[in-house]
Design goal:
CATH class of the largest domain: Alpha Beta
Distance between the termini: 10 Å
InterPro entries: ArgE/DapE_CS, Bact_exopeptidase_dim_dom, Peptidase_M20, Peptidase_M20_dimer, Peptidase_M20A
Oligomer: single chain
Number of helices: 10
Number of strands: 18
CATH superfamily of the largest domain: Zn peptidases
Largest sheet: 6 strands, mixed
Pfam families: M20_dimer, Peptidase_M20
Helix content: 25-40%
Keywords: Carboxypeptidase, Hydrolase, Metal-binding, Protease, Zinc
Structural class: alpha+beta
Strand content: 15-25%
Protein name: Carboxypeptidase G2
Strand order of the largest sheet: 1-4-8-5-9-16
EC number: 3.4.17.11
Length: 425
């Protein structure tokens, strides 16, 4: 980035700083609106709120109804249900070079989980649980960091940079999907189809608790083993039954033996269901598990091991079936992703921010985009912690530096095009 661009960005950064209070108030309203992944009414209400609030940006809205969610239940069946719309805003969509800004607006919190209300509080906490020298201005509540804080960063950054005239020659799309927390099963094909239209992407998941951005991510898959035995009377003829729960219990040690972090595979046996009346030999039981893998080789080993377990335990008049898939592939940093990382580092430096990188076991849509050929950095949202818990929070003072970094990234992307330099070069 040139010295001239640095000077041109100063009014952009000033606008971002001046709009912080409005952005925080907007974020509080968004987080007070429930948007659980499985509550289609709440998702549609959230989408309407976002459409109204993003309207001031003055860029074209595209609201797309999605196919139904595809969810794996305890009976090895794929259950389907409706979801919210995919929201897209496009600036200069016919540009030769385009950037995608993306995050989800669903959360893991049902309305029944507790009050969907945020609390602003001063926190003296660091990622390891100890005290820091000065408290942070924290917003505690559902979705504050994951990922409505990321939506706030997108809006703050794009409104400022679009008004500057610095990005008139590039395309910028904002995409918000309603189903990331449950595997992106409804929006995935639409996202896959659009991935080839962009040169680079930023995804607005929260940073790690210490402020680091994520480099490599593990792949993630959800699976279910269903055991079918034979029912019988527990008193009169139990020997004629085939106890599905007992057989399932004998299978689980084989699953836990797959857990080998040194080989790049972690296994979490997360849920067991089965049985019925206590005077009946149970003829049905199921176990659900999540598997994380470091790379594609570990993924293939895990898939082979799961299939082998299902095959070996089909014996003694028991039927064992396996369903599931890796819904998020491993994300490994390659040359194309490194170029995005270097561009993010330079953009952050313009706003006085230092970028650190770390790996994580968490999955997100950035992994899918990379797998589809769209290089990205996927933790461009706010700093925070306590994700997926009642203590989820974001650091409100992180919103301005995050938005300034995004604005500088977009301006740098546009300048590279105008000078003929390679993006990130």
């Amino acid at each position: 980035m040139s010295d001239g661009l640095a000077a041109s960005l100063e009014p952009v950064f000033a606008r971002i700083r001046n709009q912080k209070v409005a952005a925080v108030n907007e974020l509080i309203r968004w987080c007070d609106q429930n948007s659980w992944s499985l509550d289609v009414v709440a998702l549609r209400e959230m989408a309407t709120m976002l459409v109204d609030d993003f309207g001031a940006a003055g860029i074209r809205l595209e609201r797309t109804d999605l196919p139904e969610l595809k969810l794996l239940d305890d009976t090895e069946a794929w259950r389907r249900q409706p979801t919210g719309p995919l929201l897209q805003w496009h600036h200069n969509p016919n540009a030769r070079r385009r950037v995608l800004l993306m995050i989800h607006y669903d959360t893991v919190y049902p309305a029944s989980a507790g009050p969907n209300r945020c609390v602003r509080s001063s926190m003296r906490m660091n990622p390891s649980g100890g005290e820091v020298d000065s408290p942070i201005d924290a917003l505690i509540g559902p979705g504050t960091a994951d990922a409505k804080g990321g939506i706030a960063v997108i809006k703050l950054a794009t409104e400022a940079i679009l008004s500057s005239g610095l990005v008139n020659d590039i395309g910028i799309s904002i995409v918000l999907n309603p189903d990331e927390e449950i595997g992106t099963t409804a929006s995935g094909e639409t996202l896959r189809a659009m991935a080839g239209s962009y040169e680079q992407a930023l995804v607005f998941e929260p940073t790690l608790p210490d402020g680091s951005l994520v480099a490599n991510r593990k792949g993630s898959g959800n699976f279910v083993f269903v055991v079918r035995g034979r029912s019988a009377h527990a008193g009169r003829n139990p020997e004629q039954g085939r106890n599905a729960i007992v057989h399932l219990a004998s299978l689980i040690p084989d699953l836990t033996q797959m857990h080998d972090p040194t080989a790049g595979v972690t296994v979490n046996v997360g849920r067991i269901v089965g049985g019925g009346p206590l005077n009946q030999v149970p003829d049905h039981a199921a176990v659900q598990l999540n598997i994380r893998v470091n790379d594609q080789a570990a993924r293939h080993r895990a898939e082979h091991a799961l299939a082998d377990i299902a095959r070996r335990f089909c014996r003694d008049e028991y039927q064992v079936t396996l369903q599931g898939e890796f819904h998020s592939p491993p994300k490994r940093v390659d040359g194309a992703i490194q170029r995005v990382q270097r561009a993010v580092e330079r953009a952050a430096a313009f706003s006085g921010r230092t970028v650190r990188w770390a790996d994580t076991g968490g999955a997100c849509d950035g992994s899918k985009l990379a797998d589809w050929g769209l290089p990205n950095v996927d933790t461009m949202g706010v700093a925070g912690g306590g994700l997926h818990s009642p203590d989820e929070f974001c650091d409100l003072d992180a919103i301005v530096p995050a938005a300034a970094t995004v604005a500088a990234f977009l301006a740098g992307f546009a300048e590279d095009d105008s000078t003929g330099d390679p993006v990130g070069g």
